[in-house]
Each structure stands twice: as structure tokens, then as C-alpha cells.
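Batch job 17 of 40 flagged for manual review because the log was empty.
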Amino acid sequence: MASETGKLFTEDHNPRANLDRAKTPLLALNFLRRGLRPRGRSHRQRLASGTKERMDTIQITLPDGSTQQVPRGITPAEIARKISPRLAEEALVAGISSPSNGDVTLVDLKRPLEQDARLQILTQKDPAALEVFRHSAAHLLAAAVLELFPNVKLGIGPPIDYGFFYEFLRDEPFTTEDLAKIEAKMHELAQRNIPNERKFLPKPEALELYRKSGQTFKCELVEEKASEPMVSFYTTGKFMDFCRGPHIPSTGRIRAFKLMNVAGAYWKGQEGNAQLQRIYGACFFTQKELDEYLHRLEEAKKRDHRKLGAELDLFSIQDEAGPGLIFWHPKGGLVRKLMEDWSREEHLRRGYDLVFTPHIMRLDLWKTSGHTDFYRENMFGGPMEVEKAEYQLKPMNCPGHILIYKSRLRSYRDLPIRLAELGTLYRYERSGVLHGLLRVRGFTQDDAHIFCTPAQLETEIAAAIDFAFAVLRTFGFEKFQLELSARDPQHPEHYGGTVEEWDRAEGALKNTLDRMKIPYKYMPGEAVFYGPKIDFKLLDAIGRPWQLSTVQFDFNLPRRFGLEYVGEDGARHQPVMVHRALWGSVERFFGVLIEHFAGAFPAWLAPVQAEVLPIGEKFLDYAKHVTETLGRHGFRAHLDGRNEKLQAKIRDAQMQKIPYMLVVGAKEAEAGTVSVRHRSRGDLGPQPLAEFVASLQREVESRASS
């Protein structure tokens, strides 16, 4: 139910025109289940009876710009039938907007149209219809569960990125066998092509209906979210849900779905509330799309960085130390060093200064920054007392960089000042959301803060965006999606700063993206408390999006800390500030790298670049010569001198995903060559050792990602 997740879908203009006030909860229940109306004339009947207050026709504008004069009260489904029987058959939902406003609202195909509007009929060719489709699949799941387990209590059931979920309270856990039965029942109900119908009840009777059926969570939602006198419900067979929709017309179109798993979830996501069972399902328009998604899931399991991290001996999380805290093993530590070396050199080349700040600072600093007001729930632990002063582990680097800026008075000639740090941070993440390297409690952020004049702002933002693209491409990513995260104008209390400051900040980010001709998605309500931001989502080798790089504007902290510079006019002015992280964090980026490359790092990043494999003990001396030669040229080579068969050595090197295996025996020792084998390209044949060294040097220097 998208309504319960805070994303409210539209309601009909006049619910009383569709259902006059029912007299009792029992009568209301019958109306809902049987699709009946109480006595009273419908809206169309009143029109037909000669009501003169409104015109009898409205103008509908179609996507191609053509217009139609149609009877007031006509539905999108009826218009679709007039356009084409095929369109009517394929239609899932309608999009309407006023003739003067481009904002589109999705509505049911059966919703009467009461005024002039622009109309779109959405089919499975339209991505916007997919969320509605999955929302209806969530209702289908709940209907199936109620048929099999009629005593369950219902939570919420929204669409999600790949499908849907629904939450249930049940004494017994859902088993794998239960999921199979539920999925079969869903297919049965889908084949019956049951209508999804919208009905209305007065709020008191809706509450009474849910109380009598023991649906306490639904009562709570109706109390909180139903602001109109009439409450919107949708019925799918025996299932009735408090929901504002919209939904597809019936269950028959929902065929390509699969129930995936069951997970525990606190009611409303709050610890201490009842723990529900959340059934997840994948859902797509076609079976082909579903099969492709399931294949990607299997591929993702093979690439799981937690599994590969253990197999390749890269990192670990130790129970004795605590959850969400990462131990970098020698091989992982070496990759991290290579990453950080490149990053530091590139920062210096682009005009940044490298700094280091303490891990712990006075709590008063975080009060000044506003973190204790807006970010306390994410700060790790409570403050600790040292010599009668309170200190806090740092969740962010920005106050430390601000103190460096404030250490002396700055001139406009000094600006921009770009301070960069690989700073270790600590944030509280609930144990239920910790996930390997991707969600942790202690991590190192490749953070930078740019202090500049207002006139320099857009140039600095553009340079930070360019740097982000360079970082991602260097590490093997080529596909990106950008999002501009803005404030939620309905909740100004969640943000620092004035409306005018937010308008200027959002405008600066938007202007920069537009000038650079970079496409982006506008995301209202996703900004951080101190300013709007640009987020980079990269697509990995199997098409999964990852949010990593971010460029954030901040007008808030310079004011809070009283930052100044002396301008060209001799007066003191407040600088503007840009926060910028390119990897996001070293840990998260490393986890994404592991999964992107499936552990097979490119040669320039591989912990071991070449494994030297003598085919017998009598060739160890030459094998040592090869290993030492590679080492002198700066390569990371390892000699496998075990008394094992060659095929076993090759297999083990392949399992460790080492880029090159160099086999040496009598012929190679005599000729000064190596027989080269690549982990993915196979046998490359013999090469003079000097030639292989030169070839590997070119590959490493180019930072090729293969």
C-alpha cells in the first residue's frame, strides 16, 4: 500500500458521488465486497436529470496534442476504447494533468474525469506504470495469504525497485513450503482475473470495520493517514485494503512474479514495535524480464563481496571486536594502499591540499555544526567525558576542515581553498542494516571541502563533477546516473538555512549540470540537512546501480562557524562551501569494486599480479630468477614452490583470480622465456621474460580494467 509508506496516490474528486454514507459497518462491508452502492442517484444520473450548474462536456488533450470533446464523467478506460480496442486491452493506468500544469497524476482507468485535462493512457511500454503494476501485485499477495491464512494481521505492502512486499503478523513463521503455496494461490487468483475496485467508507465505519476484524495495524493507519471524511479502500476478491491507489484494473495481467524470501521487520521500522514477517516478491511485466532479473541475482550471489572477501583473504569482520568494524587483511590492505596512493596523487595534481584531523573532538563543536540537532541518531554512542569536557567520535570531517580554514584570516586571493582528507569516521548503523563493507560503523571517507567565493562556486562544482567522473572511469566504471537531491518544501524544519539560500544553492547545482549538458533526475526531499547535493549512481558489470560519489553545497556551516575572507573591497565576506566525496567511503567503494570485478581486479590493482609456477623442483632456481626480475621492476609476483602438480597450481592461482600465471620448465629456463597464461584469456604461449615485463608495464600504466 503506497499510501501507508508515505507516498500518497490520488483520490477521486468526490468520493460521496461514488458511495453515499453507509448506515452500519456491516452494511458497509457488504457494499465493499459486493461492489454495491447505497440508495441515491449517481453523479451521472444527476447530470442526466438536467443539472444546469455545469457544462455537459469537457475537453481532453491527448499526448499527440489532439483534443476531444467528451461527456463529463467519462473514464480513461472509455476514452481508450474509443481510440483503439488494442489500447483499451493493454491499458494499465491513466496519467492526468491540468491543461496548464505539466505535473502528471496517476489514476485508475475507471476514475471519472470531471474537468478539462491532459490524458495519457499508460501500458507496459511506460515505465511509470510499473510501480502501479507492482503495487497491485502486493495486493494480490495479501489476497492469497488471507485465503490460506485467514487469521493473519496485515501491515503495509508497497511496490519496491524490483517488485513488492507485504507485511504480516502471524504466530508461526512462514516457511519455504508456505511461500510455494502462497505463490500458487497468487497464480490461481491472477487467472481468475479478479477486479481491483475502489470503494469509500466514512472514517468511523472504516475504523469499526477493521476493529471488528482484529486488524489493529490498519486501524492505526486509518487514524493517522485518513484525513478526508470518506476513506479509500481497494478490494481484490475477499481482500480489502485501506489504500489510495491507483491500481491496474484486475489481477489477470499479473503473471511474471516470484516470491523471493521472508524477512523480519519492525512495524513502521521502529524497534520496540511488533515484529512482522515481510514477504518479498519480484515482479515484472514479462516472464523474460523476470528471468533476466533472477539470472542477475544468481550472478550477484557469485560476486558477493562478503563471500569473495573471505575466499581471497581481503578483509574480515570479527565478532570479538564488534559488528560493522572492518579488519583489512594484507591483500586487501595492499589494494587499499594502491587506491589511496592514486587518490592522493590525483588530488595534489588537481590543486587540493591534504590534511589530517582528529578522530575525536569536543561535543560543543558538533553543537555548533548542527549535527547534535539534525544528525544525533547517526552519531556513534554518547559523548564521553574527559577532564570535565564532553567529547564525541566524529561522524563527519567537515568541522575539522572548517577549523583549519579558521586558523587564520583568509584573503580572496587565497580562494578557492580545497582541503582533502582520507578521514576515518564513526556512525551508528542499526545492526539489522549492517552489510559487509557496504554498511559499516567505522569507515574512511575520501572527503574534501572547498571554500570559495560565490563567483567561483559553479566553476568549483563543475571541477568536482569532472573529478568524480575521472575517479569512476579510472576504476573501471563507464555508466552513470546523476540525481539532484533537493529539499522537501513541505518540511522546512528538517533543514538549516533560509528559503532564499536553498533556492540559490539548488540553482547553482542545476545550472552547473545544465551547462555541462549532463542529464540528471530531480529528487525532492532527498537533500541533507545542510544543503542540496548531486549524487552519482554508477552501474556495475551486471547493471546494478550503486550510489557512491556526491557533491554537496553548504551555505549553513560557514554561517554557523562565522567563516570569513577579506574581499577585494577590503570588507569581510562569508565564503561558500562545497562538500565532496568521490568514493563515498574506502570500504564501500572497495566492496563495490570486488563485486564489479567479481574479485578479479585489473592488473594494476591486483594484490598479486603474476604467479610463477615451476613444473618441478629442479626449475626452482629459474623460477626464483623470474620472480626476482618482476620484483625489481616493481611488480607483485609470487612463487608457488610447492611440490604439487602443475594443474593444481594453475587451479589455485585461478581461484585466487591472479591475472597472470607464468609456467617455467626446461625449455623456458634454457631460452629465458615464460609460458604465459591469463586468468580469463587462457594460454597465451611462450614470451621472452623481458617482453612480458614490458607488456605488463604497459598494462599497469594504462590502468586497463580488463
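Reviewer: the log was empty due to a logging misconfiguration, but the result itself is present. The chain has 23 helices and 34 strands. Unflagging and moving on to job 18.
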